[in-house]
Amino acid sequence: MKLSISVPSEFNLKSTIFSHGWCELLPFSNDRDDVSLTRLIDLSSGKIISAQIKEQRTKSNNALQVVTSSPLNSTEQKEVKSLVRTSLRLDEHFTEFYAEASKHKEFFWVPAFGAGRLLRSQTVFEDVVKMICTTNCSWALTEIMVENLCKKLGKKFSDSNSNALQYCFPDPEAIAGTSEKFLRKEIRAGYRAPYLLELSKRIVKKEIDIEAWRTLQIPTDELFQQVRSVKGVGPYAAGNLLKLLGHYDYLAIDSWCRKKFFEKHKNGRTTSDKVIEKYYRQFGKWQGLFLWMDLTQYWYEKEFAF
DNA sequence: GCGTCCAGGTCTACC
DNA sequence: GGTAGACCTGGACGC
Length: 306
Fold this sequence. Notes:
Structural class: alpha+beta
CATH topology of the largest domain: Endonuclease III, domain 1
């Protein structure tokens, strides 16, 4: 089944898909040549579908086409459209951000590429779990942990076309029903296991409502403290999660960011984080996004050849 | 093939 | 408030 979704005029699908590493983590998959993003969607009706998102070829080119693996009723169609809009940040306003970028010649490229929309998951829970899985390890290990979570705890889906088994991202109940030992040994989460277990159990017991973070109208500092209250989520993870929640006041500096900043701005010479913070402070409430644009600029120019 | 070392954020205990 | 050490894994490296 094919669905059509309108997008803002400055929206760029490729820039959004490859805005960071999420597109490489299950249950996302992507096709760089065809410029499409595919993921399993676990609908509230209980139906599981595969949805491929790609550009709709029209004269105005301001729409997306979503190809689903099976027909959907009107309620399900509405849910799929809403999830796609949420993941691709289609309802978030970037006019002010692009206006700010247009004041700085080193960022002229940002509005031209329609960059700045950071891909996010179906749920905040999925984003938080994945973010914990990025901490203190290589990207390869992050991929292993997320793959194990999906394949060992996610709901199964069989595509009628390929017959290949695919797996959803597990819900909090699925993780809460396991043990620390299982998460350590089977998921390879290591010391992160108790953090994942505690978060999932708190959600199941309704002690914490992290899905509300996407719509909460509270100051960023307050939201940051709420995010930090999740064990295993430190300053780096919380700062990055805030970006996925639409707040860009925090930089979220990790070792990769430091390395890239030193290469780009200090000829490889190391400095303290205070120097990095001072550099991006000029961008005010957008500083976290300007940092990310600045340090990933080469992706757009070379690696992904946008 | 095996052992050792290192990188990668966060938590906790301690000062 | 700042700091040191532990946590765990995969990968690099030397033997």
